[in-house]
Every structure is written in C-alpha cells, then in structure tokens.
Write a structure and sequence with these properties.
The structure holds 2 protein chains of 2 kinds.
Chain A lengths: L9 H8 L12 E7 L4 E10 L2 E10 L2 H14 L4 H16 L24 H23 L5
Helix pairs in contact in A: 1-2, 2-4, 3-4
Chain B lengths: L5 H6 L7 E2 L2 E2 L1 E2 L10 H13 L10 H20 L8 E4 L2 H16 L5 E5 L8 H10 L2 E5 L9 H7 L4 E7 L11 H10 L3 E5 L11 H4 L3 E5 L10 E5 L1 H6 L10 E4 L4 E3 L13 H17 L1 H19 L5 E3 L11 E6 L4 H10 L2 E2 L1 E3 L4 H7 L4 E5 L6 H18 L6
Parallel strand pairs in B: 3-15, 5-6, 5-7, 7-8, 8-9
Antiparallel strand pairs in B: 1-2, 4-10, 9-10, 11-12, 13-14, 14-17, 16-17
Classes of the chains: A alpha+beta, B alpha/beta.
Chain lengths: 150, 414
C-alpha cells in the first residue's frame, strides 16, 4: 500500500511543504481563529475584502499535513473571487467532503481540490481538511459585517 | 531475556491475530487501553450465559453465584494492591469516577477556603479538573509541583510546596506522557508530615509496577481495570478505612442504604456506601480474571519485560536523527510509555502513517494540555508497551517512522 496514492499524494505534499499565502495581514478586514478541539490544531485566517472581493488571504497554521494543505489550496482558489463566489466554493467543497450519498463533481477550475477527496476515506481526518474552510465561512461573514475600509 | 514467555502470552490474546490491510496488527497503544486475554472474555460470556443475576438480596441460586463471584473480586483486588481490608476496595466506573468520588465526597467535607491542593505538572486531565472544580467551589488554591528537564518531579520544590496549608496531594504514579515513575512513597511521607492526605492516580502505574498501598502508605489509590487486561467500565478506588468511613456518600439511591423513610435514610457500611445502584457485575467479575492473569505472570516479571523493551525502543528510536523523545532517558526510571515527535511532523500524520502499517499508536495531547504547553508542543505521538509486545514490533515502528520522516519531514515553512 502506497501512502502517496492515497492520503499523502503529491498535490497535498506540495501544499504541505510549501504552503501558499502563509503569513499575516497587518490591517485585515477580518481575522478569525479556527480551533479543532479534538486535536488542538489552530489556525488564524486574515482576510482583506474590498469592493465585495477577496483581495488578500493569509493563513498561519499549527496543524497536520491535511489541515495545512487544505488551507493552502483554499487560499489560492479564493483569492480574487467575489465574496459570493467564495461562499459558493466553500459550500461546494464542504458538500464534497461531507456528502456520504452523492459524489459531488468539481468544476475544472477547482480540480486541485480533488486531491483532498481521498481524505474522505479517513473519517477522523475530514475535520482536519474542513477547519480552514469553516474558518473562512466565518471570516467572509465577518468581513461583510465590518465597517467598510474603502 | 525477561522471564515472560511472550510468544505463549500472545496466544492468549485473540485480537493479536488480527490483520489490517494484510499486515499483522502491532498494538502499541496500551497506555490508552490494553488488550484482553481469552480468560477475561470468557468470564464475561460465562456470567451472562451461566449465572446472570443482580447481586445481593437475591434468594436464588443465580443471585448467590453472581454475588459470590462479584464480591470475591474485591478480595482479589485487595491482595493485588496489598490493602489491609477488602471493604477498602470500592468499584467505580473508571479512575476518573474514583477521583471525582474523592474530590466530591472527601473534598467537600475537608477543603476550606485558603486550603491548598498540591498536584503536579504532569497530571492527566482526570486528576486535574475535579480538583480545579473543587478549588473553585471552596475557594481553595491549586499548587503544582514542577518537572525538571529530564521529566521528573522537582522534589526540592515539592518539599517547599507541600506545607501546613496543604490538605491533599494528588499525584500520578506514572505519567501517561513522559512515562516517569514518581516517588510516591516519599511524597506520601511529605504529605503526612504536614497532616495532609495523598491520592495516587495509578491508572498508568498499577498495570505495570507492583504496587503495595501499605508499603507506599498512600491514603487513596485509583486505577482502571481496562488498562490492565480487564474490560472497560471498572475502576477501583482504594481508601484507608478511617477516611472512607468519615466520608459522606458520593452517589445515592439503591443498595447504599440501611433504612429508608420518606424523608430520610441511613447509609450502609463500607464498601457498599459508595456503590449506589446496580453494579457493573459482569465486568467486575471479568476484572478478577485479569488480575489473576497478571498475578500468574508476576508483576516483577511484567516490569522486567517492560524495562527491557523500553530500553530497546529508546535506543532504536534514537537512531532516527530527527526524533525528540520526552521523559527520562533511563528505562528503569520510567514505564513503557514513549512520547515523541519526529522532525516537525504533526503527531496525527505520524499516527496515520503508522496506522497504514497496521501499527496502533496514539497521537495528540493525551489529555495533558497543560503539560503539552510546558513541553512547548502541540501534541506528541506515543507508543506504549505491555506484556505481549516484542522487539520486532519496535523495529516495525521504527520503519514506519522512517517512512513518515521521508514523506513528511523537513517542513519548509510553518
């Protein structure tokens, strides 16, 4: 059995070893802490939303490979999207990871996320993959509520 | 070589035949729960198939047999921990419940505002949170004995911290993270000199180290049968007679009374005062078989085997350059619990890669979040050994860790 075929495939390892958008934003529109109480994983999401668009995303994370890779992929995909599109992508990804009956199809521009589909085979790790996305949902909600900075 | 015939022992544990993904199970999660020998499993079905009945007050054959079997385990436990009386042995649900019993029953009767409760920096949440709650309710203070760099209790500090303000010292016999075996006898002496009592959390220690409550002179000892070959659902509270007698009941209801009126009741004698409601009869009876199994092996032989395998594992795992092993370096100062991190790899990733090799290890904070903060780690991976583990299994662990280091090691940016 090869690990790389399954949970630790190349895309995941690439994002794990070189997480994209790693860091902080000095004056973000929203800053949210995500915590996984079961394993103690933590991440902080920084978000700049301007004119209804995700202008900047940064993440700092103390977590496992799945958590780190998932956050990294998410940041890449949501950068530049409208808040509405970003919300839709988050919901689609969550559905893919959580829907037990239906295999959710991903559009071509989200195909990187296919790498995380394998995590579904390890039910205890699904929460690791979802933590950045749930934190993002909260961040997007907060960004819309916060006083406009433009 | 140890005096344990490990090959023979392994045959007594049906689960060790299990294959996962075509590979032989390597079970190294014994600090979480141990596996069960055939005799324990048979005792469970034997009770349910042969003499299932509620104990006490039943005037029929099954009830008598069940009562005898249940009560005789009390004496088996008494002998195992060298207590003076079998009424000093209380059956609870687990160690946690036993500690809660003491914190609630003894604590509420004895802890006053300003009193101090002395714990250590290496306690499991189960020997921390009941005292936190008690301290908050009674306006008492928690005091923590720190640990040294080699993962042992700082006894110099302990001598200062245990004072005339101290009412109870609650300490683990063996750390479930560091493996450290604590000098409980010395701590008991320090506590008693100041008029305090001592509770020892034996959940990790009693399954692995011969324990005599009279030699250690401890006031309370708690442990869980499921970590020592027994079924889940049985904890033991040992308490000195005079302390238990002075304590009010913990839970109340059936079975713990002598006379009941509409507006009042009187409590029955020890040990039943603390065993309200129908007991976990089947699991207690099977627990007796677990103790018999360990006694037949000899606890000194168990300990010797574990020192040998721990010594080997410490040496072998250190061959991985990137490994950090926590706790004492000397296997004779610790139990067979080894917590470690490889490079900066998250413990859950290590656990996963081990799982793919059919190796069961635990990963995370091990219910010791304050200790994790002291060690400045998010969590650790942990391998823990018991009577059926072999050096070959340690080698398999080593190979899996090498694989983890290859796949996930050398993290560029965190």
């Amino acid at each position: 059995m090869s690990l790389a075929d399954d949970l630790y495939r190349e895309t995941i390892l690439d994002h794990y070893h070189n997480p994209r958008n790693h860091g902080t934003i000095e004056h973000p529109t929203a800053q949210v802490e995500g915590v996984n109480p079961l394993c103690g994983d933590e991440l902080t999401l920084y978000l700049t939303v301007k004119d209804g668009k995700v202008e900047d995303v940064k993440l700092t994370a103390k977590g496992c490979s799945i958590n780190t890779a998932s956050g990294s992929m998410m940041s890449e995909l949501l950068l530049g999207k409208s808040v509405e599109e970003a919300n839709e992508i988050v919901e689609l990804f969550k559905k893919m990871m959580l829907d037990k009956k239906e295999e959710v199809e991903l559009p071509e521009d989200l195909e990187d996320l296919e790498a995380l589909r394998g995590v579904k085979k390890y039910p205890v790790r699904i929460k690791c993959a979802l933590l950045p996305w749930n934190t993002m949902l909260e961040g997007l909600g907060n960004a819309l509520k916060s006083p406009s900075i433009d | 070589m140890s005096n344990l015939n490990v090959e023979q022992i392994r045959k007594d544990f049906p689960i060790l035949q299990r294959k996962i993904g075509g590979k032989q199970l390597v079970y190294l999660d014994n600090a979480a729960t141990s596996q069960k020998p055939r005799s324990v499993i048979d005792a469970l079905t034997g009770y349910y198939e042969g003499y299932n009945a509620n104990i006490h007050r039943g005037i029929h054959t099954l009830a008598e047999e069940a009562t005898d079997a249940y009560e005789s385990v009390r004496d088996t436990v008494r002998e195992f921990i060298d207590a003076e009386h079998s009424h000093e042995i209380i059956f609870t649900r687990n160690s946690t419940e036993a500690i809660n019993l003491v914190a609630y029953s003894w604590g509420n009767a004895n802890i006053l505002p300003g009193d101090e409760i002395v714990l250590t920096a290496m306690e499991h949440h189960s020997n921390l949170i009941p005292w936190q709650r008690l301290a908050t309710e009674r306006n008492a203070k928690l005091v923590f004995i720190p640990i040294t760099e080699c993962g042992q209790l700082d006894m110099e500090e302990a001598r200062k911290l245990i004072s005339s303000k101290t009412k109870i010292v609650a300490v683990t016999l063996m750390s479930n993270v560091l493996g450290t075996i604590n000098p409980v006898k010395e701590l008991a002496k320090l506590a008693h000199e100041k008029g305090a009592v001592i509770l020892v959390d034996g959940a990790q220690g009693v399954p692995h180290v011969k324990t005599s409550v009279r030699d250690l002179d401890v006031d309370f000892l708690v442990f869980s049968m499921h970590k020592m070959l027994g079924p889940t659902g049985v904890g033991i509270l040992y308490g000195k007679t005079e302390l238990l007698e002075a304590m009010p009941p913990f839970q109340s209801g059936g079975h713990m009374i002598t006379s009941v009126w509409r507006d009042k009741a009187t409590w029955t004698e020890l040990p039943w005062k603390f065993e309200a409601g129908t007991s976990n009869i089947a699991d207690v009876i099977a627990s007796g078989k677990a103790i018999e199994y360990l006694t037949a092996l000899g606890m000194d032989n168990v300990r010797e085997h574990e020192i040998e395998i721990t010594k080997y594992a410490l040496k072998k795992l250190n061959e991985l350059g990137d490994i950090t092993i926590f706790g004492p370096k000397d296997a004779t100062l610790r139990g067979g619990v080894i917590s470690f991190n490889v490079d900066a790899i998250h413990a859950h990733d290590i656990g996963q890669i081990c799982a793919d090799a059919a190796i069961a290890v635990r990963a995370g904070h091990h219910c010791c979040q304050p200790l994790m903060r002291d060690l400045n780690v998010m969590g650790t991976a942990r391998a823990s050994f018991y009577i059926y583990n072999t050096k070959d299994e340690v080698d398999l662990l080593f190979e899996a860790l090498k694989e983890a280091d290859k796949v996930l090691g050398h993290v560029a940016c965190r």
